[in-house]
Amino acid sequence: MIDSRCGLHCTNCKWKETNGCGGCIETMGNPFYGECPVAACCQKKELTHCGECSNIPCNKLYCYSYLDKEHGDKPQGERVAVCREWAAASSKMNWNKVLLTSAGFEDMDGNSKPNITDCFLEMLEKPVSSAKVLFIPTAAIEDDAKEMAELCFLELLHTGISEENITVYNIGEDLSEKEALAFDVIYFTGGNTGYLLKRLKETGFENMVKKMVYQNKVYVGVSAGSLIAAPNIGNPFQEETGGLCLLNAYLSVHCTKDMQEKELPLPHIPLRDNQALLVTYKGYRLIED
C-alpha cells in the first residue's frame, strides 16, 4: 500500500496515533511536525510518490534516507527501495540494466571475460552492431587511467560495437536530454573517483545519468565508474561524497580473494577484477569469470 510520498511506511509510525497524524498523503504534506519538504516537492511535481521521479534519490530524500543517524532509515536507503518497488509495480520505473565491473570486459592480456561480456550483450536487447554508446572517460585524468580508458574503448569494439556508434563525451560538454536519451549505453571508465563524482554533481549531469538508467538504458561502470553507483564513495554519512545510489550496498574494486568485507551500514561487496554486479531496482547478483 502506498501510504507516503517518500517510501516511509506511515502505517507503522509510532507517532501516528499519539499525535493524531494521518501521514503525509492524508495531510497533504503536513504531518504532525510540520511541512515535509520531500512531500511538498513530490506534490509540486504532481507525483504520487518519489519513485515516480527520475531524480530519485534527490538530495532531500538522500539526506533523510541515508545520512540521518537518529531518524533516518535503518538500513540506509530503505525508503528509496520501497519507492522503487512501488514504481515498478505500476510499470513506471522497472530498470534492470546496470553492470558494475571492477576491470571491464577483458583481462590485462586481452582475454575476454565471457560471462560478463555475455551479460552486457544480453542487456542490449538489440543487434550489437547498431547499439550506440556514450563513452565517458572523465575520471581518467592521470596517464595510467588514460591508457586504461583506451583499452576500455577497444574492449567495446571487441564486443562488436561499431566505432562510429561510440561517442566520447567529457562531462560538462554540451549534450541535450534528447541527445543523451538517444544512446543505448552509458559507459564510465575508471580513474579518479572523487573527481568524477565532483564533475557529476557540479554540472548536474548526475540527474541525466539517473534519467538514462530509469529509462532502462544500459549503464556500464569500470572501477571508478562502478564506485559512483553506490550510495557513497567515502564516509557513509557524508553528503559531499554521496553517490548515485543505483546500488544499495557499498563497493570496493580491484580486490583480492582474501579481502574481508568491511563493517558498514549496508552490505559491503569487495569486487575482484574477474567479477561484476548486475544491478536492478530489485537488488543485485554477482557475475564471475
UniProtKB/TrEMBL annotation:
One of its GO terms (molecular function) is serine-type peptidase activity. The keyword Membrane does not apply. It comes from Anaerocolumna jejuensis DSM 15929. This is Peptidase family S51. PANTHER family: ALPHA-ASPARTYL DIPEPTIDASE, PROTEASE S51 ALPHA-ASPARTYL DIPEPTIDASE. The lineage of its organism: Bacteria, Bacillati, Bacillota, Clostridia, Lachnospirales. Keywords: Hydrolase, Protease, Serine protease. The keyword Transmembrane helix does not apply. GO terms for biological process: proteolysis. Belongs to the peptidase S51 family.
